[in-house]
């Protein structure tokens, strides 16, 4: 799918993040193809701004993260990030949604679903961004690597947590400690991605999935996502303790009434997120 670039204040030399609303979807594009979409601090801040827009705009229901050019991202542009790392600083100001969804104090966690389309080189930060999202569609030409150990640093964007949770400790350490390169089939085997498609079809498939999510009741989608995430992070008993209160709140919503009416009238529901 060919997408028009959207205007962004980030200078071309630093790269940019494009943002395009398509109905209830927000398409968020990584745009620095001359540098394999390597992330600068300015791009990381712009990405957080796009994620924050998704959460704050009631007209938007699902985000779709993708990349311009041939590759998803080569990861961080280390020369531009090194000073921040040495000072222990983040390029994302407090109060914004953290694209890595780590739950650190001062940053917000995303509530709305995020679908990611990855292709070509998907290194370091690229893996962490997709693991921080909800559903990942990978092109069959992907090259993955979590190679921080080869640069003398550690993956601190969530890979050490989420790779082990998805694939088991041994499988996670195989890739974390060797910094090796693996393909889309291996990423699917390890549950890092949910679907593999021929190169060039990854964005269309991600959009198809996002469109299907956007047709569902928004309050129920958010509640289901957050409860599943809580079960993974805090345990099933903690998540289960919220069942009754959450279901009662949803059952009293306008969307629940619309769902019942649509069922009775044998028609597609029209949800409003209320």
């Amino acid at each position: 799918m060919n997408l028009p670039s959207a205007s962004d204040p980030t200078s071309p030399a630093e790269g940019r993040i494009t943002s395009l609303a398509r109905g209830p979807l927000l398409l968020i594009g990584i745009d620095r193809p001359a540098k394999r979409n390597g992330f600068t601090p300015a791009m990381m801040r712009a990405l957080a701004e796009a994620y924050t827009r998704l959460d704050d705009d009631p007209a938007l229901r699902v985000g779709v993260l993708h990349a311009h050019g041939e590759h998803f991202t080569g990861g961080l542009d280390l020369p531009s990030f090194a000073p921040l790392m040495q000072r222990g600083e983040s390029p994302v100001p407090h109060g914004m949604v953290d694209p890595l969804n780590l739950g650190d104090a001062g940053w917000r966690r995303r509530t709305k679903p995020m679908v990611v389309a990855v292709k070509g080189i998907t290194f370091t930060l690229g893996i962490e961004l997709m693991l921080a999202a909800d559903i990942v569609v990978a092109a069959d030409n992907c090259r993955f690597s979590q190679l921080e150990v080869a640069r003398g640093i550690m993956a601190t964007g969530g890979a050490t947590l989420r790779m082990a949770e998805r694939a088991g400790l041994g499988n996670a350490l195989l890739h974390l400690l060797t910094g090796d390169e693996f393909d889309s089939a291996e990423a699917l085997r390890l549950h890092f991605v949910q679907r593999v498609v021929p190169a060039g079809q990854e964005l269309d498939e991600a959009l198809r999935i996002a469109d299907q999510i956007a047709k569902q009741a928004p309050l129920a989608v958010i509640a289901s996502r957050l409860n599943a995430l809580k079960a993974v992070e805090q345990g099933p008993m903690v998540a289960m303790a919220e069942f009754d209160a959450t279901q009662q709140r949803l059952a009293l919503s306008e969307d629940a009434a619309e769902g019942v009416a649509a069922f009775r009238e044998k028609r597609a529901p029209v949800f409003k997120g209320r």
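The two ends are 32 Å apart (CA to CA). Residues 4-11 have pLDDT under 50 and may be disordered.
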